[in-house]
Structure to design on (346 residues):
């Protein structure tokens, strides 16, 4: 039992460090893409509280939101924000990684904005799974 | 964790898959800040810009436009507009939209017609115009058309800016006046205090001699 508790503690620390590493690598990649002119706006990722209604088995308590701030130098339209969110969710590997590391909500908003959009990550995991089973 | 006051609207899968079918193209303004049209055209129509990689046709056109520009006055806008159109069509240059774009966004922001300054007509016009600005951020000709359409908004904006400036100047004047009055009152108090101290000293000296 002690070993169990100890393993849980180790995996908690490992998860925390994995999450921080993912945030850092995402921000570095987004910055490099923006500087190279591959993207018209820069995305900055951070951890937020998330939406408790979107919880799943792996969700982290009070830290299940993957929040993206879009820095484009101007206000974003509704369609643009939804497009960005959809582009992120099209990356299956990233979505799976977010899911497994305890995120359940993807949030997107523009700089100087007081509103944004959010997606339930587990909806997209089910979609990927269904597509995979159709193909096999 | 940051920005806790943001309200997020949920997006379901269907809305997301619809947006996949109609991709949105970002429009960014063309960067560059020039003092005037002439300066920008002189820089961008220089024939050496088309020599690496070498494009003989464009060098020829640039040569013609450049010599016409040298004979044109800086404030001859009709001629400069014609030359600019030719430069864009024949040389494929991109005219900077950054300055006009930023100014239009500031002047035509629909938010300024909400709340206490609510104005139904101007809000409706600025709403249409604002979307057009975002959709045409890289097209100088479209932005100039939009600028002409947005004249009523610009006139109203100018009036309000002047009013704000006037109010600010009045407020500063009042603050300065109040400060001066306070200083005068403080000086008066200090003078009275010194006077009483001198009287007490004088009485003390008299008492000492008696």
């Amino acid at each position: 039992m002690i070993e169990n508790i100890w393993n849980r503690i180790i995996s908690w620390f490992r998860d925390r460090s994995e999450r921080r590493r993912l945030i850092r690598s995402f921000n570095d990649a987004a910055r490099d893409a923006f500087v190279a002119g591959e993207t018209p706006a820069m995305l900055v990722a951070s951890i937020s509280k998330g939406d408790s209604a979107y919880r799943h088995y792996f969700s982290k308590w009070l830290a299940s939101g993957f929040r993206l701030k879009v820095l484009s130098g101007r206000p974003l339209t509704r369609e643009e924000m939804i497009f960005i969110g959809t582009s992120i969710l099209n990356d299956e590997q990233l979505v799976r990684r977010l899911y497994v590391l305890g995120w359940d909500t993807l949030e997107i908003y523009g700089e100087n904005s007081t509103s944004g959009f959010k997606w339930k990550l587990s909806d997209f995991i089910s979609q990927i799974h269904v597509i995979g089973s159709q193909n096999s | 964790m940051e920005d806790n006051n943001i309200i997020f609207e949920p997006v379901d899968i269907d809305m997301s898959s619809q947006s996949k079918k109609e991709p949105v193209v970002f429009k960014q303004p063309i960067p560059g800040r020039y003092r005037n049209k002439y300066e920008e055209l002189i820089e961008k129509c220089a024939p050496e810009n088309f020599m690496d990689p070498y494009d003989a046709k464009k060098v020829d056109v640039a040569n013609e436009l450049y010599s016409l520009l040298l004979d044109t006055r800086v404030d001859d806008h009709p001629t400069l507009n014609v030359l600019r159109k030719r430069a864009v069509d024949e040389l494929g240059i991109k005219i900077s939209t950054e300055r006009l774009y930023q100014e239009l966004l500031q002047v035509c922001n629909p938010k300024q017609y909400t709340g206490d300054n609510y104005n139904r007509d101007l809000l409706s016009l600025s709403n249409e115009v604002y979307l057009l600005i975002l959709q045409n951020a890289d097209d100088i000709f479209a932005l100039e058309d939009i600028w002409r359409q947005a004249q009523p908004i610009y006139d109203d904006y100018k009036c309000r800016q002047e009013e704000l400036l006037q109010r600010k100047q009045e407020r500063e004047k009042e603050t300065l006046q109040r400060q001066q009055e306070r200083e005068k009152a403080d000086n008066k108090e200090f003078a009275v205090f010194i006077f009483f101290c001198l009287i007490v000293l004088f009485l003390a000296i008299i008492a000492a001699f008696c």
The interface with chain B takes residues 40-41, 46-49, 51, 63, 67, 69, 72, 74-75, 77, 79-80, 82-83, 85-86, 89-90, 107, 109, 113-120, 123-124, 127 of chain A (CB under 8 Å). Helices of chain A lie at 2-35, 78-89, 92-100, 121-135. Residues 128-136 of chain A have pLDDT under 50 and may be disordered.
